[in-house]
Design goal:
This is TIGR03089 family protein. This protein is an alpha/beta fold. The chain has a single domain, classed as ANL, N-terminal domain (Rossmann fold, 3-Layer(aba) Sandwich), CATH 3.40.50. Helix content is about 35%, strand content about 20%. The protein has seven helices and twelve strands. The strands form three sheets. Strands 2-1-11-10-12 form a five-stranded mixed beta sheet. Strand 1 and strand 2 form a beta hairpin. The chain is globular.
Amino acid sequence: METTIPQVLAATVRRDPASPLLTFYDDVSGDRTELSAATLDNWVSKTANLLVDGLGLGSGDTAAVALPAHWQTAAILLGVWSAGVTAEISDPESADVLFTTPGREVTTKASDRYATGLLPFAMPLRELPDGFGDYVLEVRQFGDHFPGQPVASNDVALNDRTHGDVLLAAHARAAELGIAAGGRVLVDATTRFDPVDWLLAPLAAGASIVLCANLDPAKVTGRVASEKVTQVVA
């Protein structure tokens, strides 16, 4: 069994690089973004390269991720973990780098700060807040292959939990929710905030994800059919 989050992602990509791994919907904006395992891995690699080659971060450093459940958030979190950096989603004050959305009040000492509008087609922001880089523009400058960083199961991954602890929680959550290997799980992004729920439990179980923001209940039945969903986690 994989003991770190990067190992889980790598196993997922090896198993089926071409099939949809994460499909994102926003029922307000009308956005639908589908990422295969290989495509998501490219975004993850670019993010890890941004952190390691661009910012010089690694083991012992912390990235504050003040973002809702979204495909870009998945890429950022998985990139953070691939880089050997700790993701902090509760207390960003002491972080070394910040990822957030414009207008969100975040207190942090991080000198490196990135904003994203989480816009359809990964469009850049029209107006960038002072002191911030645009994540989707900056990350595209980096390579889509990441050579890897040494990451151990006892390294801190999420807040104060290690990779081993987080994966144990992800497997337990998958079992509790009945998520099975090969399944396709529809997740309501408005009710699931912990990435263990909306991202890592399905990945650890070997399932793919249909992540829905601002979910319109009237669209669930049709989406289950069109996306071949095997389970709804609302």
